[in-house]
Amino acid sequence: MTMFRFTDHRAFFALAGGQLVSTLGSGMTRFGLGLWVLDQTGDAAAYTTMLFAAVLPLGIASLLVGPLVDRWNRRWTMIAANAAASAPTLVVALLYFADGLEVWHLYVALVVNGVGSAFILPALDASTPMLMPKEQLGRAAGITQMLQSIEIIVAPILAVPLYLGLGLGSVFLVDFATFGVAIAALLLSIIPQPARVLEEAGASLWSEFRFGVAYLRERPPFVYLMGFVTASMLFMPGIGYALATPLALSFSDEAGAAIIMTAFGVGSLV
């Protein structure tokens, strides 16, 4: 009996759907952990540090993963990256259920999670031309770009009822279930591997890195544009996101904070 497999555009939509579900689970966990940190400490600085521990490693690692994704099997890269991103969540959950969870544990877990997550979307983006027809690549790129925005919009609203009704442990369980959906989509999808042109030409990671640096040095306006866009994406939304939840909880409850964060996400998408 032959196992059913997703191929071509069906594989892309299966992968994107699986990652959307997994991203929602991860977003619910991050929001729930943020509420837990504020409940435990009442310290907005600890909450902000937690957010930067999640964002900065992801941003830094994202600059370096491209050449690795080009060399590795994309499907197994995404499977390993999802596992690496979920492993620290499992450790945090075990510490929570054992009443041993401390705030600093979250910082370490989020750093590891960020590094693992950095491989997922680049591997999906690199796989898209192998799965979608050329005329649909723009649509596919828009779908993958919306994954993070949908997380910001939907995850807080989903996390709060679980957090208030059943506790943080229930949020962890949902996160693990969504991880299973992403892995199932990957295992059931066939992603063709492109010809490994760079390796066949004898190119190394270091030579590719030097080529990229030389390319940027020759185009200063592009570097300035990249710097501006990066700073805008990191600091303007990032600072607003970091301040929104503690500020909302100062005059409202968790549900109010979730609504405000959802509105923030809608504004970011628009």
State the gist of this model:
With 270 residues, this protein is mostly helical.
Structural description of this entry:
With 270 residues, the protein is mainly α. It has a single domain (8-269), classed as MFS general substrate transporter like domains (Growth Hormone, Chain: A, Up-down Bundle), CATH 1.20.1250.20. It is built from 12 helices and no strands.
Largest sheet: none
Count, helices: 12
> Helix/strand-derived class?
mainly alpha
Radius of gyration: 20 Å
pLDDT < 50 runs, ≥5 residues: none
- Helical amount: over 70%
CATH architecture title: Up-down Bundle
Features:
Growth Hormone, Chain: A; globular; 270 residues; mainly alpha; 12 helices; 84% helix
Write the layout of secondary structure elements.
Elements: H1 8-41, H2 44-62, H3 65-71, H4 74-97, H5 103-117, H6 120-131, H7 137-166, H8 168-187, H9 197-200, H10 205-217, H11 220-251, H12 254-269
Helix pairs in contact: 1-2, 1-6, 1-7, 1-8, 2-5, 2-11, 4-5, 4-6, 4-8, 6-7, 7-8, 7-12, 11-12
